[in-house]
Amino acid sequence: MANQSQVAELQAIVALYQEDEEVTLLLPDCASAAPQSSGSDHDGQQVRLETWMSLKSGEQNRVIDLQLRIWLPSGYLSEEASEHCPPCFELASGCLSKDALCLLREELERLSFEDADFPMVLTWLEWLRSEAVTLLDAQGLLEHEVRQARPCSRPEACANCAVSIAKDATFCMCRGECPHALCSKCGSMAAQVYEAAGLTPQCPLPQCQGELLEGVSSTCELWSEVSNRILGTPFKDKIVFCPKCEDRGMDHPILMQDRCACFNCWWLFCGICRSPWHPGESCFEDESRVMRMTKRRPPLSQELAEKAAMTMDNIAASTRKKAEELADMLKERSDDFAWMRQSFLGIHQSSIEWGLGAVFGPDFDRRTVPVGSNVITQFMNSIQEMPLAEIRPAFHGTNIANYDSIYQRGLLVPGQGNELTIVHGAVHGSGVYTANVDAAWLSKGFCTAPSMLVCAVIQSDAILHVGDAMVVGKAEHVVPLFEAHARCWKGEVPHVAPAVNRPVTQPHFAAPRSTAAQAHAALQQKSATAKANAKEKIEPEALSKSSKFKQKMAARAARR
Questions:
Q1: What is the dihedral of CA 227, 228, 230, 233, to 10 degrees?
Q2: Mean pLDDT, to the nearest integer, of 408-423?
């Protein structure tokens, strides 16, 4: 709450400037001295005031607009404060360079220490009105500035959403040269998106790099609400929604960069076409990338959107041609499932292998799966009922333990005449979830091993296209054809499982096979044998000589 000295200074400022056309004030209620929280990171700030000033340079008739935002700490002008507590401030301008603003900030900080005992807010306002232009001229910081005279007043509408901010006491301004005023919701929205990307919050308007003031902070709203608000504002040109999260029913706005990275799923993708990141390659080099460009949210610029639409016309013509070729091949043999599978692979093999290679790499195998007779009958009957319907390839990822059941019973819609329950959610409704042939990475997220199913999907009114996914509402309109598998996913190291219950054997040392070693060993053995024989021969002779010597000595002793 403002102390008495602060209230007195605010009342003096109102008396001096309330009729001044060059100064517009936004002050707290001086009569009641009601505190206002700044919402910033400065500790102990209780009162906030804002001022817009229009400074004129007499001879050249220049007009400089300044915005001064000030926070009064509780110890400012307080008799109980044990140390100097100057106000905190932010200075912004739509027509001054960074160097000019830095110079003005340095002067205001110098005044706060030189005149520490005086009411500092009033000192700052008077110095800006009377001395700021003279200082800038003396430093040559006004010579090349381009300025437009405009009324100095409190902004009436948010620059991003155009909502009136006449009664928004917490609206925010950008730092430096950015003159845009934002309502509290747009300021918080921009801060939340930039902070999620680990970046300093900036102005949400396109082509503007002005940083938001420190007082602006995010309120951690639900991303669905933030995304809906972004789509109705110019901020949409600065973001793109993560395609992987979007396919799963979640909208996460990601800032447009050279390489976009989702803060939720860590997916790396191109911000233009929303395809997996492809450094050094154009978005128009691949049909799947162009297709994603036409589905991009928010939409691309008009120029890129028109170019993508023209390319998409050629892709659609090629797709129709493939569908007609397959339909002609199935006319006379519409009940032959093996023929259908072979013909289907012949037409779509290149796109299927390209899609699988994106997740497996070049080393993967594909095998034909044993489909149950009931599943075959239902699918072929659907083709006969809709002979002109297109049949597209798709991928389905699931637990490999489900394969045998899928082969015999087909891909079933949970709850439609079966006991199956929804395992991974149904954000886009009940059905069999498959990935487009150019989005195998989407099915990969549901696989328990480096393996997935290649399916055929009849394009009927029971198909819901959502991003890179196809949700099949009728089980008879989808059938598994092949199983693709590899030792590991692309970019991973193959895992070698250790042996289980491996028998423990005693070490066995084989005899030396070297001829030289054998000769050396034989020589050593021969030498040892010779020494033993010589010892046995010498020992009896030595024993005999000793006995004769002892006998001679005994005879000599007897004679004496």
A1: 170
A2: 82
